[in-house]
Amino acid sequence: MAGCLEIENLYFKYHDGTLALKGVSLSIEKGEKVAILGPNGAGKSTLLLHLNGIHLPQQGVVRVNGVEINSSNEHQVRSKVGLVFQDPDDQVFAPTVWDDVAFGPLNMGLQRQEVEKRVADALQAVGMWEYRHRAPHHLSYGQKKRVAIAGVLAMDPQIIVLDEPSAFLDPVGQSNLVGILDDLNKEGKTILIATHDVDMAAEWATSIIVIKDGRVLAQGGTELLVQQDLVEAAGLRFPLVSQVFRETAVKYDLPLPCTVEEGKKILLKLTRH
Ligand SMILES: Nc1ncnc2c1ncn2[C@@H]1O[C@H](COP(=O)(O)OP(=O)(O)OP(=O)(O)O)[C@@H](O)[C@H]1O
Ligand SMILES: [Mg+2]
Prior knowledge:
The chain is α/β, with parallel strands linked by helices. It has two domains: 5-238, P-loop containing nucleotide triphosphate hydrolases (Rossmann fold), CATH 3.40.50; 239-273, no CATH class. It is built from ten helices and ten strands. The protein has helices at 44-48, 74-80, 97-107, 112-125, 141-153, 171-186, 198-204, 228-233, 240-251, 260-272; strands at 5-13, 19-28, 33-37, 59-64, 67-68, 81-84, 159-163, 190-194, 207-212, 215-220. The strands form two sheets. A six-stranded mixed sheet has the order 6-7-8-3-9-10. Strands 2-1-4-5 form a four-stranded antiparallel sheet, with no helix packed on it. Strand 1 and strand 2 form a beta hairpin. Helix 3 (97-107) crosses helix 4 and helix 3 packs parallel to helix 5. The radius of gyration is 20 Å and the shape is globular. The termini are far apart. The site of adenosine-5'-triphosphate has 13 residues, from helix 1.
C-alpha cells in the first residue's frame, strides 16, 4: 500500500553549502503516529519543512497522498499538511492571538461563523482561549508554542506535523498535548513529531524514525528505542522505564519494557511470586 507521505532519495543543501539531507527515503501510512528522533543538527527540521512545501526538494521526491509536491501545488499541500515550526517566533505574527489562529482558516476562505468556531475550539484545546485578545509577542515562549499549535489545529489538516511540540510546555501542557494528538489520531489524522523526548516517543508513537547526519538510520516500532547500538549511534538514551527495569528484565528473562504500562505489568508479575 502506498503511504500517505512518501519521500524518495531527498537531498537538501542550504545556501551556505550545508548538506542537511543526504538521500532520505521514507514511507508513512495514513493514521500512523510517528516520532522522529536524532541528535541536534541531524536534519529533522529540514525534513519536516519539506512536508508542506516550505522547502521544495532540490533532488528527490516528496509525495502527499500520491501527489508530488512542487512549486505549482505547494499552497494546496499546505491545507492537507499542517506544520508547527520548532520556533513559535517563526510562526506567530498577528496582532492578537485570535487573529493569529484565524489567519489560516480565513485564508482557506471559510465563512466567518466557521472560522470563529474553529478558532474557539483550537484555543480551548491548547488552554489559550483566555489569551485571545493578547499580543502574541507578549506571551511566554510556551504560550506562543501553544498558539502556534492552535493555528495548525484550526486548519484541520489531514496530516499534522509538529517540530518539538512539547519543548517549553509545562507538564500539564505536555500531557494535554498528548491527549489532543491522540484525539486527532482517533479521527484518522496522521501525526508526525520531531522530538528529543524518548519517553514521550516510547509512550505515544506507533512508528519511530531515527535520523542522523542527514540520513535515516532506522525506521520501525518503539522497540528501536531499546536497541543499544542504535541508541548509542543516534545519541539517544533508553526510555527511563527501560533503564529502571534493565537488570530485572535480564535476571528474569523478561522483555525490556518501553512504556510505564509495560513496566507496571512486569512489577505485578514479579510481586505475585
Ligand atoms: N538556515 C540554515 N542555513 C544553513 N544551514 C542550516 C540552516 N538551518 C539548518 N542548517 C543546518 O542543517 C543541518 C540540519 O539542521 P536541522 O535544523 O534540520 O537539524 P535538527 O535535526 O532539526 O536539529 P535540532 O535537534 O537542533 O532541532 C545542520 O547542520 C544545521 O546547522
Ligand atoms: Mg530541529
